[in-house]
TrEMBL record:
Organism name: Paraburkholderia solitsugae
Listed InterPro entries: GAF-like_dom_sf, HTH_MetabolicPath_Reg, Tscrpt_reg_IclR_C, Tscrpt_reg_IclR_N, WH-like_DNA-bd_sf, WH_DNA-bd_sf
Superkingdom of origin organism: Bacteria
Keyword Manganese attached: no
Domain IclR-ED per the UniProt entry, residue ranges: 71-255
Protein name: Helix-turn-helix domain-containing protein
Alphabetized Gene3D superfamilies for the sequence: 3.30.450.40, Winged helix-like DNA-binding domain superfamily/Winged helix DNA-binding domain
Record's keyword annotation contains rRNA-binding: no
SMART domains assigned: HTH_ICLR
Stored SUPFAM superfamilies: GAF domain-like, Winged helix' DNA-binding domain
Domain HTH iclR-type positions: 7-70
UniProt keyword terms in alphabetical order: DNA-binding, Transcription, Transcription regulation
Length: 271
């Protein structure tokens, strides 16, 4: 493929922006950005200044920490209007958290990755804090991510696994391409995915994929809890609930697309 001029700079700028976004309201300092992006300090400083100039990042004048800027909110609002996921997805996550007592999530697909965008905690006092809005994993890593991968056709599954193979080997010791192929098959049989502590020991999850009206994988709804709360019987119970909420969200997406035929949902833009 022919190289696109400036593509590396854009890719690095997005890496910096994502690192800022992962910290949410805590913000991040320059030294942390350098560590999290694996870029050198002058490059990170230059890119973060460019992002500030465009309103994508803001710096607190007292703490000097960096935060997501207002322009990100504007772009997010526009994307939310296009994909029609906002309020309905938030309502689904809230219902799941309330009924289960555990932590509920909505994650979206970003090409070969899954990104958590919503989290709601239930009232059970013991929680797992592994997944937060902004957390990004290769497809297949974690319950929601695995549900998305399993919902794709075989050719797309293999493409994702091939691209992520090296990252799985270097950063996710409990995962491998052969193992994920088996997990995809099991997920398809059940209709929902199960993560039995493979990302972090003791943190288990169950998830169901959500599709757009065109059949593309949009995201996944998931529940995460400590191991003792997600044994086999409750996995099945939560799996059914998640599937019901996923189908409800899909009906909303279909209705929104029917009302706006010129803006029918297509594949999520690959980042």
């Amino acid at each position: 493929m022919e190289a696109v001029p400036g593509a590396q700079a854009v890719s690095r700028a997005l890496r910096v922006l994502r690192a800022v976004a992962r910290t949410r309201s805590a913000g991040i300092n320059l030294a942390q950005l350098v560590r999290d992006t694996s870029l050198n300090k002058p490059t990170v400083h230059r890119l973060v200044l460019a992002l500030i100039a465009e309103g994508m990042v803001e710096q607190d004048p007292q703490s000097l920490r960096y935060f997501v800027g207002r322009e990100c909110y504007v772009l997010g609002s526009i994307a939310n209007e296009r994909f029609g996921l906002g309020r309905e997805a938030a309502d689904a996550v809230a219902r799941l958290a309330r009924s289960s007592g555990d932590s509920a999530f909505f994650s979206i697909r970003s090409d070969v990755f899954a990104v958590c965008v919503l989290r709601e905690d239930g009232d059970f006092p013991l929680k797992t804090h592994v997944l937060q809005p902004g957390t990004r994993h290769p497809l297949g890593v974690g319950a929601g991510s695995l549900a998305m991968l399993a919902a794709m056709d075989d050719a797309e599954v293999e493409r994702c696994l091939l691209i992520n193979d090296q990252q799985l080997k270097t950063a996710y010791s409990n995962f491998s391409v052969p193992m994920l192929r088996k997990e995809v098959a099991l997920t398809r049989e059940r209709g929902y995915s199960v993560n039995e502590g493979r990302v972090v020991r003791g943190s288990w999850g169950v998830a169901a994929a959500v599709r757009s009206p065109s059949g593309d994988v949009v995201g996944a709804l998931s529940i995460a809890a400590v191991e003792s709360r997600l044994q086999r019987d409750r996995q099945q119970e939560m799996g059914r609930q998640l599937q019901e909420e996923a189908r409800h969200l899909e009906k909303h997406l279909a209705g929104a697309a029917a009302m706006r035929p010129e803006q029918k949902l297509k594949r999520i833009v690959r980042n």
